[in-house]
Amino acid sequence: MRDVIVIGAGPAGLGAALQAKQAGLDALVLEKERVGGRLNLARRVGNFPWPAGGWLSGAVIVQGLRCQARRSGVRIAHQECLQVARAGQHFIVRTAAAEYRCRAVVVATGVRPLPLAVPLAPAAAGSVHYRWNDIKVHRGMRTAVVGAGETAFDQACSLAEHGAAVTVLCRGGRPRAHAGLVSLARSLGVRLRLNRPVSRIETSGTRGVALVTPRGRTRADAVLVAIGGEPSLPALTASARRRLGRGLHIAGDAVAGRRRQAAIAFGDGVDKAMMAHAYLGGRGAC
Question: For the whole model, what pTM was predicted?
Fold first, then answer.
């Protein structure tokens, strides 16, 4: 039995766990992959409150949050949450390895990348990626980034800094990333192609692929898709969903719409942990 279980160890989950510990709650964090989540992909984060100030990479911020969590006694179990249910006065959180009972749950599982829903040649599937650090970059490697937002341009900059020759394909007539990031991408040699909705991806030559658009083909050795994300939630039974806002709280990118920023997610995790504490009557560890 735990006071609260936090599902996900990204910025929102770590914010919730740190606040829960500060409130004297017995908290456990479940994380199926890397601590930090998609924040690990961020090349530069300039609006996260951190003593060093200035620009920091997402990986550096994650390292700092991990150290803070460790010093605070936050426990992280590397297990994937499969289901959250409600039984009597408690929640049941099920993983493949265990079943936990708790009095409150904070779900901070973030988002999963939206797939590029276009015809894809079977032989080209291995060239399509959704995280820049999944690509084995070599100097001069032709990489096409599909997307127009900040995630697309930030990852395009990371690829360019590692030696790739990057082309960003935007569906519309202008990028959705802020002007400073677009300017930085251009300074790193990233080429920008507007009004290039991808209709299909074919094989090209012995290794490469071709992204087909109404204005021609873009050939690449690898493709990075960054067209947005959708909430990545565990299965929530009907009995659990009826407790939304009353013991069950969803935090961070999973509910933030398009305002997906690490600082916002962290603060929302803190807020949801405070709500869980209030729901528990302001009591400390059980």
Answer: 0.90
